[in-house]
Amino acid sequence: MERFIITGGHPLLGEAEVSGAKNAILPILAASLLCEEECFFEKIPLLEDVFVMCDVLRHYGVKIRWQGSSLHIDPRQLENKDAPEFLMKKLRASNLILGPLLSRFSSACLPYPGGCAIGSRPMNYHMSALTQLGAEICDFGSCIRAKASCLHGTEICLDFPSVGATENIMTASVKACGDTVIRNAAREPEVVDLADFLNKMGARVTGAGSDTIRVQGVNRLKGAEHKVIPDRIEAGTLMIAAAITGGDVLLKGLDPQSSSAVIAKLRSSGVIVKEDSAGVRVIAKKRPRATDIRTMPYPGFPTDMQPQFMAYAVTACGTSVIAENIFENRFKHADEMRRMGADIKIIGEAAVVRGKENITGAQVEATDLRAGAALVLMGLYARGETTVDNVFYIDRGYQRLENSLAALGADIVRRSYDASGWPRQAAQSPCS
């Protein structure tokens, strides 16, 4: 087990390169199963979730070769077989191989996926859509079996713009007979990146980034090369890290449009955000003003930035109201923040946060990926020393977050400990 030890009060200064997007590469890796030629990917984030997805692909016979942060995928010996439950439950995005397997083999059997416990994330949107494409779906509670002698294009209207469902429909329909129209589709940049990769393989996908995506079925897909987009959630976390510490940080290579909702909230709270060809620069000269947020599907404020923004609100002047409209169980971090002196009241699906100038370091535990990042942000601001346990959650979505922050001037180190909490010799991580 590992923890972060943080001494707060150091402004972050300098430049940072944003890693490749976790939520983009996972569906793209799943989509590589659609072709029978090698694919090559650049700017792969070295994250636990990516390593698990690679293990999933290996289980199906895919050959994987790493070359630094680049990845070669060879699916020519792909086999259709049942996946072990223990492996699939390590990762929510494991459900994204359902569409590609169904397209490639006309059948698939998947255990229900895992992931962070932040609320209900049912598979009903996925299953309903695949049924409309012509699949027969059997839900056994612990696993899903799907088969289809022939997938055929149709018009699908999602009740909610689910990112995962949109991605599974896209990958299932690219080789279907006829055309597929997805209405109320997810508009996230990661969906656009998946569409770009599919088109490089020879698919015909248009409209990605809007609420209507059209997929014209093709007979064959070829191998392709692709560079993953920057991770907008990592970028947003680093923006708040700069703002919360009164820093000045340039995030290189980031498309400002992908983070427009976060940038707008930072500006409304008094932070200077400059956009140019080099990237996005965040300058915080004084304590921020309180600002309300409501999480919404893209292009609204992302739910994956809600915990980090709550940490920011804890330090602001005034009272902020944070409404969580995506996941019903995503305020667990509030209890840990209170250990550091935060004034937070949860009222139904909203959190009322009264900002405080002073909070104190404490020993806290990450309860999920983004909650862990939020506690790190609290530690950067707090007086004294903060210990954040369960950093394996953070490693699922951030590539050595402590190194990125330390390079900007943060006092943060990673330490290993045993079950009793005593330090032990540090183990080597695949990210090191």
Molecular structure report:
The protein is α+β, with helices and mostly antiparallel strands and 432 residues long. It contains 14 helices and 24 strands. The protein has helices at 22-31, 48-59, 85-88, 98-105, 124-132, 163-173, 189-200, 232-244, 260-268, 306-314, 333-338, 369-381, 392-395, 401-407; strands spanning 2-7, 13-17, 39-42, 63-67, 70-74, 107-111, 136-139, 143-147, 155-157, 179-183, 204-206, 212-216, 225-227, 248-252, 272-276, 279-283, 293-294, 319-323, 343-347, 350-354, 363-365, 385-389, 411-417, 423-424. The strands form six sheets. A five-stranded mixed beta sheet has the order 21-22-1-23-24, with helices on one face. A four-stranded mixed beta sheet has the order 2-14-16-15, with helices on one face. α10 packs parallel to α12. The chain is globular, with a radius of gyration of 22 Å.
Structural class: alpha+beta
Helix content: 25-40%
Q: Kindly estimate the percentage of residues that lie in beta strands according to DSSP.
A: 15-25%
Question: What spatial form do the alpha-carbon principal axes imply?
Answer: globular
Low-pLDDT ranges:
425-432
Number of helices: 14
Q: Can you summarize the main beta sheet?
A: 5 strands, mixed
